[in-house]
Amino acid sequence: MSSSEGERVSKSAGQQVSGLTHPLDARALIAVDLGAESCRVSLLRWIQGDPSMQLVHRFANAASQRGSESASQRGLRWDLARIVEGVEEGLRRCVEIATEGIRSIAVDGWAVDYVRLSPTGDAVADPFCYRDTRCAEAEISLHERIALEHLRALTGVQMQSLNTVYQLHADALAGEAGTWVNLPEYLLYRWGGEKVSERTNATHTGLVGLDGAWSPEIFAAAGVRVEDAPRIVEAGTVVGEYSGTIAGLRGARLIAPCCHDTASAVAGIPASGDDWAYISSGTWSLVGTVLDSACLSDQATQENFTNLGAAGGRVLFHKGMHGMWLLRQCMEEWNTDDVAGLVAAAHAAEGFSPEELIAVEHASLAQPGGMPDKIHALWDGVALEPARMARLIFESLAMRYAEVVRGIEEMTGKKLRRIYVVGGGSQNFLLNELTAKATGVEVLRGAVESSTVGNFAVQMGTLEGDVSAGSVAGWAEIVGRGASA
Predict the structure, then answer these.
(1) Rounded to the nearest 5 degrees, what angle is found at the Cα of 187, between the Cα atoms of 136 and 40?
(2) Domain containing 399 — which CATH number?
């Protein structure tokens, strides 16, 4: 991996901001990143014209069995009050630090999950988690009403039981209805913004047609009213001004960035040209490239690739699969949180032949609990101690990444020469090495908190009047310098 190559790419991308290196308005920006494992609140300040990005507050997040004991209410849900409390604690800390004032706030997070709203706009219950078992049941039910192949043809997205369309159908089967909004947009709405669905998040619902609008046909099949859906807006839309309880934030602009955290992470890559791919490596591994328009080939359909919204009106064309989820679930069983130690031990462990590797997308690996046993069942070999099981996971992921990268080249006609790995998994030196070996492509490590960089980059594009893909990439290069300062 060449550090000089990474520097060359960054400088090239930065030139796209028309020579601008910092804004005239030096007030700070706040980025909120909602994660399935942790949530973060970060601050971007301009210190003597130089960017300085600071993680102000981080707190753990996890879904748990919650709700009433009725069959339709009990399930795997997020603790919404705790999420709101944690985020707003971060906002208060930002106000204390940034005495120059706050210019804007934006929120990104994991896609597909949503908050149901009462007629008065209040949350009616803790939101379900996409891993709840009701999703698989709803998937079967929905495809009795609309064929999977037809749904795919209408949307161009990867068909996964976690998509919002299946969750809303599960609500309909349980007799629940009403307005809803995805989690990142819910926070913006709660603080005084308009109720919206930002395009990168909207496309992940499985409810948006190829024309970019909500599909009445899909809503009807799911038993959901299209009138209950939020208005779709583009990344970088100002949706209102903060009017919540934190006095120091009042009047700050509320911006919908790329609300889908993967789109935000890709927006945080300061890359130029068209010969690169990305791997967003976290709970999920998302392997893809950025296109000007959706890829709707037969191969893309057969291999279940997805076409999702990206910054600047472009398209994320990628394949999603389990990522660090597999390791994290094993670590819970092993009662350890030492990722670095496991990676080092796996590096020293004996490797595997290609025939021994597991299918990381196997359905049995989707639900929490008992992950080592589930992996053993797929591997069908002698019991593995933690270091070798970690190595098995990493080698299996790298092999799958290589298959996906080859498929992308076939479907798009691109020759990919660089892979940017972003997210927490980018720190896994062994997985990066295995990926480079399996793909034969140079692997460049991007920002660990690339979604935060992308969040700030879109905010800057909005505030400075240009949210084109080139402008966002340029701001990502500038903001990224502050992340490493």
Answers:
(1) 85
(2) 3.30.420.40
